[in-house]
Prior knowledge:
The chain is of the alpha+beta class. The chain has helices spanning 6-29, 31-70, 87-139, 146-178, 190-198, 202-207, 224-240, 296-305, and strands spanning 186-189, 211-216, 219-222, 247-254, 258-265, 309-315, 319-326.
Amino acid sequence: xxxxxxxxxxxxxxxxxxxxxxxxxxxxxxxxxxxxxxxxxxxxxxxxxxxxxxxxxxxxxxxxxxxxxxxxxxxxxxxxxxxxxxxxxxxxxxxxxxxxxxxxxxxxxxxxxxxxxxxxxxxxxxxxxxxxxxxxxxxxxxxxxxxxxxxxxxxxxxxxxxxxxxxxxxxxxxxxxxxxxxxxxxxxxxxxxxxxxxxxxxxxxxxxxxxxxxxxxxxxxxxxxxxxxxxxxxxxxxxxxxxxxxxxxxxxxxxxxxxxxxxxxxxxxxxxxxxxxxxxxxxxxxxxxxxxxxxxxxxxxxxxxxxxxxxxxxxxxxxxxxxxxxxxxx
Length: 330
């Protein structure tokens, strides 16, 4: 089989020719020298063929090991190829195998994460859909008063709005996960940024008889639309966890290193158990209401971190969120 290799076959032919010539020349001088030369040349040829066979055997074993690796056999070890001319190839193969195993594990983790996410999304959608079905059943009752119909219709609009918000937010998260979002840098005053972020929450805050205090100075440079979304979700979270008549405070400053936005409230704060998980997707704290989906703060963190920012949550007489957008890479 090894003679099918043109290089090996060529070297073997050359060795045979050299052996024949050396034997003839030495035999002319003395027959004994001719025999000795022939024996030595034959020994060298045998050693060469044996070494080539051994190398081919190693190559064959390596090919089988690579095939086993490609068929997901994780018990294959390549340490036996660390010596000789296969050492360099073994080193590169070892790096390739580690990379493939890491990619396989990453794909497996992504598959589990996707499965869990689909289950979470299904659960989040099932709750309002169940409520909508019940309300529609009630709405179909023949003797229902106009006042009751109005109340049920209003609740249906609320449920549909919740589903619309959930789907829209999930689409934004999926775009951020896929890396298809292009953040555009624009300059705006911090006062205008905060005003834009809180515009949709002014009326709900007033209905809760809460006070919104804003104190800003300086400018912001970043994606205004996405950043407003992130800040708005945090302010909304503070509003929902602050008692009637409470206060939400937003302070924003700008310095040569970073732009800092601090959002705090006078609510009960974040429990110590929830604090490490508050920015996790679909995580709902023990004080979350039934309308919470657990994705608003997760979306905020994704938006902030993708703009070279950081966000930290802690308790200081209520929930206390610190956001920093750094002007240099950290």
